[in-house]
Amino acid sequence: MITVTGSLIAANAAEAELVQKYLPDHISLSRAEPGCLTFDVVETDDPMVWALDESFVDQAAFEAHQTRTKASIWFEKTAPLKRDFQVSGS
Predict the structure, then answer these.
(1) Rounded to whole angstroms, how far apart are CA atoms 75 and 57?
(2) Beta pairing, strands 82-89 & 36-43
(3) Which end of the chain is least crowded, N or C, by CB within 10 Å?
(4) For the CA atoms of the chain, what is the radius of gyration?
């Protein structure tokens, strides 16, 4: 199993608005992927920070998620945001 934990960090209100606009669809699409076990991105007490908690059955499922994400409107629109996360598992 592969797990991803960490944070998505907006630098300003405009970036935070992009997350609010595009995140629901990104979550829905990610959860529907084959091999996705969990996919949670939730707001923290800081309105500029979201906590990530994701898991995938194996490396292939995680790589497929990364490939889909990098080709998505989510990635295009939120590319400037800081992504601070750790990937673990085998």
Answers:
(1) 22
(2) unpaired
(3) C
(4) 13
